[in-house]
Amino acid sequence: MTIDSVRKTVVRFIRRFFPPLDDLLRLKIGYRFVVGYRINESAGLSPVEAISSMTIGSSGEESVIYRHIERSIRERQTTLSEAIRRSGAFPDNLPEWLDPAERNARLGEEMGRIEMVYHEMIREKIEFFKGSIKPVTTILVGGLVLFGFAAMWIPLFGMIENLMTGGVAIQH
Q: What backbone phi and psi angles, to 5 degrees, belong to 80?
């Protein structure tokens, strides 16, 4: 088992059982895509060249997603928004925001707006998780303390019961 396969398993587990974390992962992927695409487009690259450049600079899941988008645009002649929609890896609103911008040839400007929106959304999600950590850890620590008390008191009650009945339990 490789590190990459363990990482993929953990990501699949998170996506399935912790939807808020899945939303955060999708936002992160969308944000990184928007920033990377915007940088490459401002350097004068075509959409396919921009995504190809992003594929080279990424690793793991993002690299696979970018290759899928690049292949979809090249081979199927789809628009960027349609390729993103088909990938299923981005927030649902990204293709909806990109579609009108592509039709009006204002993709760069829209990517700038999307970048700011995603940045704020990610900040809000992280603040939510930071606020959730303290109550969860308080409950977990309380459970551990309760377990410790139970581990000390249950045997003590057994010894008291043996003394009250007049017998001493001898174990062999």
A: -60, -45
pTM recorded for the entire structure: 0.69
- Torsion over CA: 5, 7, 10, 12 (sign): negative
Residue 102's Cβ-count burial label (10 Å; 0-12, 13-18, 19+) is middle
d(CA 159, CA 161): 5
> Which long-range CB contacts under 8 A does 59-62 form with residues at least 24 apart?
60/4, 60/7, 61/8, 61/11, 61/29, 61/89, 62/29, 62/32, 62/33
pLDDT tens readout for residues 78-130: 888 898 888 888 888 888 888 888 888 888 888 889 999 999 999 998 898 88
How buried is 118 (Cβ within 10 angstroms: 0-12 exposed, 13-18 middle, 19+ buried)?
buried
